[in-house]
Design brief:
Number of strands: 5
Structural class: alpha/beta
Radius of gyration: 16 Å
Number of helices: 5
Strand order of the largest sheet: 2-1-3-4-5
Distance between the termini: 23 Å
Shape: globular
Strand content: 15-25%
Largest sheet: 5 strands, parallel
Amino acid sequence: MNRAGAVTGYPRAVDTPLRLEVIVGSIRPQRFAPVVADWFVRTARARPEFETGVIDLLHTPLPPDLSETAETERFRQRLAAADAFVAVTSEYNHGYPASLKTALDSAKHEWRAKPIGFVSYGGLSGGLRAVEQLRQVVAEVHLVSVRETVSFHRARTQFDADGSTGNGAAIDAADRMLSQLAWMGSALAAARASDPYPG
């Protein structure tokens, strides 16, 4: 389905690319997040279905008390203009970063009826326990999580000095996830345009 709502096969002709925002969750010192996020953003920008931006929470200081600030308003405006999201998340003590929870809680209507995918990284679990928690949280704000997840186990061993990876499973998962986001993003954008979401 394209942005006008016409049903087509995949690959499809792109009239207007979907706006995809990649949210980088970790803000810790010496974080590994930029390596993983940069690889994924390059992958997404190679796809004609998307116009891809990056919201790095390290450079988006949202107040943890959820007070109203100019930064919060700018963040919400970015979300409102987006058609789809990907959260790049680490796993800390079986959970996801507090900065990512603050980001999810800092908006409401701007998330609704839009798809989200996850790129996770960590040790043996590859961040998958964080993703399972996030799926519950995003459902509460009316985001629609796609099935495919990109996961890097022992992430620091998965990338070379140029930030590239030879992890075939992750490369394949990224392709599948982006295809799911394109399909879901187009379908939901058409639905929102024709009938406001009853959230």
